[in-house]
């Protein structure tokens, strides 16, 4: 921020707390806020007035608010990039799909081991009572329409 921007910022602050502003104030505040953007500083002034009414605003408050806002933006941006990276991976290549396949294999192995101990072949899914019952429910629901 240059000195002109600092003078504009101090004018905004003056509108809130009726402080007097001189050349020394502009020089001092400019030295502290020289590496910040005017828009960020103006937003910080408004945020300070919303969250801390009655507290005398100093340049350190503005630096702290801008730093926190930048950190929040960086966290949100990292979260968006993380979710975009996850969405870019097809489900078939994801860790969730691999875990599902592994759990399914463990379950199949356990069922086969159980029926091997009993000396019987494992049942087929098409022989399961639920499988035979489902089409009737679908037919009945279709008939009531």
Low-confidence stretches: none
State which percent range the strand residues make up.
under 5%
CA-CA gap between termini: 71 Å
SSE sequence, one letter per element: HHHHHH
The overall pLDDT average reads: 83
Identify the overall geometry.
Answer: rod-shaped
**Main beta sheet, described?**
none
Binned, the helix content reads over 70%
- Helical stretch count? 6
Radius of gyration: 33 Å
Helix/strand layout:
Elements: H1 3-17, H2 23-33, H3 38-51, H4 59-88, H5 95-118, H6 129-143
Structure description:
- Helices cover 75% and strands 0% of the residues.
- The chain is mainly α.
- The chain folds into two domains: 3-88, no CATH class; 91-143, no CATH class.
- The longest helix has 30 residues, at 59-88.
- It is rod-shaped.
- It starts with a helix and ends with a helix.
- The mean pLDDT is 83.
Relevant terms:
145 residues, 2 domains, 6 helices
Task: Briefly summarize what is shown.
This protein has helices at residues 3-17, 23-33, 38-51, 59-88, 95-118, 129-143. Helices cover 75% and strands 0% of the residues.
